[in-house]
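Worked example 4.2. Below are the chains of a multi-component assembly; read each line carefully before continuing.
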Amino acid sequence: MKVKVISRSADEFTRERSQDLQRVYHNYDPNLRPQEKAVEYVRALNAAKLEKIFARPFIGAMDGHIDAVSCMAKNPNYLKGLFSGSMDGDIRLWDIASRRTVCQYPGHQGAVRGLTVSTDGQVLVSCGVDSTVRLWNVPVATLTNSDDLSDNSVEPLATYVWKSAFWAVDHQWDGDLFATAGGQVDIWNPNRSQPVNSFQWGTDTVISVKFNPGEPNVLATSASDRSIVLYDLRMSSPARKVIMRTRTNAISWNPMEPMNFTAANEDCNCYSYDARKLEVAKCVHMGHESAVMDIDYSPTGREFVTGSYDRTIRIFQYNGGRSREIYHTKRMQRVFCVKFTCDASYVISGSDDTNLRLWKAKASEQLGVLHPRERRKHDYHEAVKNRYKHLPEIKRIVRHRHLPRPIYKAAALRRTMIDAEKRKAERRKAHSAPGSIVTVPVRKRRIIKEVE
Amino acid sequence: MGAKEDDGIHENILPPIEQEISDELNAKAKKYLRGEGADLKALQDKKLKGQLAVREEIYGKSAKAAAKIEKWLLPSEGGYLEAEGIEKTWRIRQESIAREVDILSSRNQYDIVVPELGPYTLDFTLSGRFMAAAGRKGHLAVVDMKNMNLVKEIQVRETVRDVVFLHNEHFFATAQKKYPYIYNREGTELHCLKEHGAVLRLQFLRNHFLLASINKFGQLHYQDVTMGEMVGNFRTGFGRTDVMQVNPYNGVVALGHSGGTVTMWKPTTSAPLVKMLCHPGPVSALAFHPNGHLMATSGKEKKIKIWDLRKFEVLQSIPGNAKCLDFSQKGLLAVGNGSFVQILGDLSGSENYSRYMGHPMAKGYQIGKVQFRPYEDVLGIGHSTGWSSILIPGSGEPNFDSWVANPFETTKQRREKEVRSLLDKLPPETIMLNPSKIGSVRPARKKEKPTKQEREADMEAAIEDVKGIAMKKKTKGRNKSSKLTKKKQERVAKTKRPFLEQQLKEDQAAGKKRQKLNEQVELPSSLQRFARKKTTT
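Applying the procedure described above to all two chains together yields the following structure tokens:
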């Protein structure tokens, strides 16, 4: 007879000294965990509810400007620094961590329309409606910590006067040229008082300009004649152009997929394009109830933030048709500029009410240093939520956002109008000769033509 | 080319030992895959297909990792009992086992004799660390089984019919003469659950924190022990019974009745989910396999039946009486009858139960309850003169999971687990026959009404079918061509009739609707705006 029975001595399975860690044993046998799927579902439900409870995205407002904030610029070399320009010609450097002004750059007459920082983070370029481009020295990071704020106002390094009012400026990602938009597109060398190159295609004002993050010589502009134009500095003439039904207010390139850019349009939508294939948009991002004023990609390239005239900020996935998040406060007026911070965890908005506002990019994220156990718990919650996201209860909780009444009503109205249009189109198609009416997909509907 | 082929063959061939190991791992991984993967080929959506493919790969990897852990990393091995020569395992007595095993295990063989408080019933906590014993005459005891300490014993001076632990060893519920009560470990009475009435049998659903009871009048009650809310209260309508068991796999409560039926209940419906006639006579005992697919029932007609709950079919019918039944974690079945305990085992692995061990107790002991101690090779027996414990090698799961049930739990861990299990408390709606349905998508419903064209097409097809059938050659005089044509026409008419009748019915219904509308609107459309909205009374 051979016999063995389970025999566990307490010494083997418990700790020896009180300072030791408790021993933990695992057995992953599914029979030991009955109804594990139901338990997982309940956890997902609880995680969805907790996410809603902890969703407090607003961190604080940065007060100081005395007119609407018109433009912002990130300092690529210093995480905490942010520049903002306002409609009264004031430029400020903010310390985001303490939410205070570090220094001011007085000089512009009239509104500041564009701000950008050079690649090395040492020169700030600003332009405005007074037809001047001004170059400023950016204080060193250690200096910005000093407490004597707002006194250390500085003189511009250079001031260049040009023909027409400027609307936007952007610096090359790699290189020392910068481009301004206004009556035409001008390419400037910071050491010369006149542009080194000028482009014009069409007669209307160019309102935004953005350099490509991957290819330093390529830039995209949008103009008030509803066109988006791509330029290559190595060629003497513009490269390509697409004309849409409404004006594009801002453009942002995806930093991780530099052939793609997203255009913020007047018709409440954003359009993601592949720069090599402009006849059809890659994705249409819907959700805003009024013109989209500004757009900025997260450094991860997976999502972008938009600010709109409807007084809300939305965060979209780079390939998502609907917004992931919508931020609003009672006091925030029309949003003119938005920026993702360089660590992809905060969003900053500048609006008509003279304030800059700081938001979390993930509304329910826990700030501060996380214990590894806490991080694992957050990851687990995220995973179960993702696994059961299609179930009605969880979907309802995760999708729900409280909206201010005017926006809610505007959305309902818009939805009714769109539905009616769709219904009408369907009926018209059903009652026409087969093939005589072709349904144009949404991704093509707002594009008039592509010009080469 | 030849070299390439050679390479391909070499990749597949492993040395025989490794091959064996990989086969074993694959067999083990199957358990952790929890069913078939998604059928990717049937999918149209490319994006979804890609996402699911990634997911399936992760599942496969994690199942393999779990199988490897099971093979190499688990600290203990299961018990076993093997006969040598002409020995038979069922002839081996407890005394001979006691001689072979270590001292620690041999302490698990004992008899507690309390003849004047008897018959005893008992219950173990999920980890098998604590036991509650209840004597019919009102004796309640909580015992720490690790060091055989009596934690607390009280005398309630009332008939006690059943005892059951709640979520941990700190609380237990007893079915007493008139009502069930909840006590804490110190013996303080916390609650008297008057709504349940005179309860015969109690069960606790751990994941749902529900206390289920069946009372003298055949009423089934479910009470949430966290908030105290009465979740369900059903009259079974099958009379008095004291055969009740929870299926641990899905939380469904099964009742065995005197008519020979077994009914299965959930707290959200007043009718039983399943009603199966298991025995011609009264059902005397009931037990569920921990994997939820097997049920054992015993009838007063001297039959023990093993049922497959996926098909609701008898797998095996074993002759024998049973007063009480219990499945162990590894699937051994204990049968208690009179003063003899028999252990049946699925020794061949083909769901065919045969005798494995037996244990005769002292003459005159009437066994009332058998229960395997979780995570140990021990069977607890409650009988008329006290309680006993015997060794059954190979009955318990050798490896415990600290986060599921820990026999060496500290106070801190117990508190932590209490909070966690409360956070994961399942709502009563999650009790269903197939719990893997939770989180899955219901397939698209069939179209209710076929369209007119479809119906016509169906009719055409049916007519074509009928026309295609060759006529039988009949005897002389009945095979005339005119008769054949007539018959053919009859056939076609016969197939057409149901379709036409259906059509007629629908047309009539539509006509009625139209008529109704017309009745409502008598005025011409241009004058309708002047019509009175409400008729004045």
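Take a moment to check your reading of the output against the notes. The mean pLDDT of chain B is 89. Residues 451-468+482-504 of chain B form one domain.
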